[in-house]
Amino acid sequence: MRSVQTWQLRAQFAAGLSAMYGAEVPAYHTLVEVSSAVNRGVVAADGDAVRLGSLDRVTAERHGAIRVGTPDELAAVADLFSAFGMYPVGFYDLREAASPVPVVSTAFRPIDPEELARNPFRVFTSMLATADRRFFSDDLRARVTAFLATRELFDPALLATARRIAADGGCPRAEADEFVAAAVGAFALSREPVDRAWYDELSAVSSVAADIAGVRSTHINHLTPRVLDIDALQHGMTARGITMIDRIQGPPRTDGAQVLLRQTSFRALAEPRRLRLADGSVVDGTLRVRFGEVEQRGVALTPEGRRRYDTVMADPDPAAVWDQHFPRTHAELAASGLAYYHGGDPTRPVVYEDFLPASAAGIFRSNLDSDSPAAGGDDDTSYSQDWMAGRIGHHLHDPYDLYEKVACS
């Protein structure tokens, strides 16, 4: 008998990950506290702020981020998340950002408006682009591939259960708690000693590469609350003594309608890890990998709106030219066909549910102590949305198609 539906499993999964991540990264609790305080203040001062989501939804909202090494590992993630009603949406190539990172990514999330309203949990999932010779020499690629072939991120029994739950649309209560606990545990930070020399060699290519292929498991890299005023959040965290990254990623601050996604984070923390040295001895050390991200979401832009956005962001000073390309009000955005609104009603904006590759890469790179630039040359790989869909055996939904359906519903 199906007594727990997929959205309830998703809410339980998100809550479980939040509790686990908070225990691993205590500064996350501060981020949640400040975000909640900012949200209450914004809604108290401006009742129209809830047009982009109720206070309850925004306060409960999270997105997570994980990293894997191979298409097979990404396929396993897709199977696992399908049990929670989370499907791959979009294709993001962070290698092409101004601050390139050697990964290609998708985001797993609900795609139905009612499911998003019940619990909009998302997980941005990146896969190491080992085929790209601009980052990986033939020798290093062979050794990374061999290392990744020896690990198993998820218990096959867990994946089998996930596929069955996805097909059934839920599971009995007696099974739900055990399944969710196992799924959450699969993303816990491993206490297994890390090979220091191997980790350092990969770090010379990219700290993200080391975080993926330098360890024998995956883990939650960050868990992100949503805030209604990210500038107030940045100031609030700084006042708490938390070091934030230097610049908020995404659109510039404006007094007009908020669009797409703005993101910031506290700097990656030095976390205690056990390290295995070349002589086989194991010592206490630290690795600086995980950070605390927070986001402010605005209205979803149409393809024309996105083209304008990309033009603005290519300018040396986007804030100075923003008003030349974007009107200030939701009514003007709707009339210009630049953003999506439910039934065309400018008082009912369609919230942007996805991600910006330049912002994601900027967050990744701004949290790294150092990273080597990619070597010169052309990209001769086959990474693409169609390639990823074929390799993981799941359709990658087009974000614009989803926004069109929501706007027309």
Automatic annotation (TrEMBL):
Pfam families: HGLS (PF07063). It comes from the Bacteria. Keywords: Dioxygenase, Iron, Oxidoreductase. Its cofactor is Fe(2+). One of its GO terms (molecular function) is dioxygenase activity. SMART domains: DUF1338. Its EC number is 1.13.11.93. InterPro entries: HGLS, YdcJ_bac-like. Belongs to the 2-oxoadipate dioxygenase/decarboxylase family. PANTHER family: 2-OXOADIPATE DIOXYGENASE_DECARBOXYLASE (PTHR39479:SF2), PTHR39479. This is 2-oxoadipate dioxygenase/decarboxylase.
